[in-house]
C-alpha cells in the first residue's frame, strides 16, 4: 500500500486535470459570477501540484494508518472536478466537497495521533478544501 497510494495520487491528479480541460469547452465556467476572492486560474495550476505532492508524501509515510480513508478521499477529489466542471452541477459538487472535507478531517485526526509533522504537511490540503468549498458556495449563491 505504501507505494500504491502515491501512484493513486498521481492518477487522481490526471483524472481531475482531464475534467479541467473541459472548463472552456462551452464557456459555462467563464460566464459564472464568481466571488471577488476567486483567484486567477493560474493560481490553481500552482496550488494543486503542491497539494498533490504533499498528499503523495503523506500517503507514502502514513499508508498503513490512513489507506482506507485516503482512497475514499481520492475518489471524492477526482469526482469533484467532473461534477463541477464537466457536468456543471455546482450543488452536487458542494455535497461532494462536504464529504471530502469530512473524510479529510478523519484523516487529519489519524495523522495527529501518528505524526505531528505529517499532520502539518496534510493541513494545507484541508485548508484549501475549505477555501474551495467557499468558492463553490459563492458560485451557487451568485448564480
Q: How is this structure best described in words?
A:
The chain has 143 residues and is mostly helical. Helix content is 83%, strand content 0%. The chain is built from six helices and no strands. It has helices at 4-21, 28-31, 41-61, 63-86, 90-114, 116-142. Helix 4 runs antiparallel to helix 5. The protein is globular, with a radius of gyration of 15 Å. The mean pLDDT is 93.
Brief summary of the model shown:
With 143 residues, the protein is mainly alpha-helical. 83% of the residues lie in helices and 0% in strands.
Terminal Cα separation, in Å? Answer: 43 Å
What does the largest sheet look like? none
- Mean pLDDT across all amino acids: 93
Radius of gyration: 15 Å
Which term fits the overall shape? globular
Order of helices and strands: HHHHHH
State the helicity in percent bands: over 70%
Number of helices: 6
Query: How many extended strands?
Result: 0
Helical/strand content category: mainly alpha
Strand fraction: under 5%
- Unreliable stretches covering 5 or more consecutive residues: none
Amino acid at each position: 500500500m505504501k507505494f500504491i497510494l502515491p501512484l493513486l495520487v498521481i492518477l487522481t491528479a490526471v483524472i481531475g486535470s482531464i475534467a479541467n480541460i473541459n472548463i472552456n469547452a462551452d464557456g459555462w465556467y467563464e460566464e459564472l459570477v464568481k466571488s471577488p476572492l476567486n483567484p486567477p486560474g493560474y493560481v490553481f495550476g500552482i496550488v494543486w501540484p503542491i497539494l498533490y505532492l504533499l498528499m503523495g508524501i503523506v500517503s507514502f509515510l502514513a499508508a498503513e494508518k490512513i489507506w482506507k480513508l485516503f482512497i475514499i478521499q481520492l475518489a471524492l477529489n477526482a469526482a469533484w472536478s467532473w461534477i463541477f466542471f464537466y457536468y456543471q452541477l455546482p450543488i452536487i459538487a458542494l455535497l461532494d466537497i462536504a464529504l471530502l472535507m469530512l473524510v479529510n478531517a478523519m484523516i487529519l485526526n489519524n495523522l495527529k495521533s501518528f505524526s505531528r509533522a505529517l499532520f502539518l504537511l496534510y493541513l494545507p490540503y484541508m485548508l484549501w478544501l475549505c477555501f474551495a468549498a467557499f468558492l463553490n458556495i459563492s458560485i451557487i449563491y451568485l448564480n
